[in-house]
Design a protein that fits this description.
Length: 136
Amino acid sequence: MNMLSPGSTLIWFLADFEARAANYPETTAWHFVIACFKLCDLDIEEFLRNAPEEAQNKRMEIMRDASELKESVRRRFGAVTETRRRLRQALGKGREDRADTPLRRSAEARAVFARAANIANFRTDKLRPVDVFEAL
């Protein structure tokens, strides 16, 4: 599989955050959809000001990844904030008794990453957020 770009790593963290906040036992493909939309709304400059130095050092690549994703998502959906909120509401909550264990990707989410890797391989590039979005 391809190496993840810094923006794809950020998408993964956002998806895990969404899953954990909703008490899901695993990160689903729907959490990755929400994460893609969230990255489109994220103020990257503000995020990077508060991010670890390692992320700040990859500022240009993160900004490129976010810009490319925003263009693709907005071309298909227009404004994404309301869509993201509706998706989050429709997905609902997971189990209240979810153990505080590391999250794993669902089989469906792993299949999405496999498709995204194929897209990136075709370009001979890192796996980028736009690849994840296209694979969804």
